[in-house]
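Researcher: Sequence of Amidophosphoribosyltransferase follows. Predict its structure.
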Amino acid sequence: MAIVKTNPIAISGHWHSGVAMDLHTISSTPVGYNDFGYMQFETVRPEIAELLFRLKNRADRSAAAPIIETVADFLGHHRDKFDAIVPVPPSHPRAVQPVIIMAEGIGQALNIPVLSCITTTRPTGQLKNITDPDERKEHVNGLYTVDAAQTRGRKILLFDDLFRSGTTMNAITDVLLDAGQAQVVRALTITKTRSNQ
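Model: Prediction complete. Tokens:
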């Protein structure tokens, strides 16, 4: 087993309960500008966050397995609290879609269906570039729809790679509980930023 040590942190939002497996970074120190004038940082990450960085930013698929094993082991103790995993849809195209890869791996490890039941009504863009909370909420207003046939009466685990402000996950939780008629929604992310900007 390639289980890595984590430091689970409660995350709050519109969901019933939620957890991030660890912080996204421990520290990030400016080390000077590169040849293109961009500030470079020396970033220290928890082990699971380093694996996530490799999967997302280096398209290193080998980093997915220890994340999947660690999360499946953690969730195994809470198996009665959900009966389906719903991954947050990717905000932009990548060769490797880490959230989907991890969700499917976790679902397979726990023998739980992974529902691709959330779709977007328009291109999402990236919320990380919007810092104003009201503007973020406006950006996701009416953005997500759900196939209620898949979620009605279910206990959902909403899954994403990173928790920042919770705007996206709150919007999806509301859709799952309202139009989707889910019985309950819980949330899990791999990492959580140190601030919610």
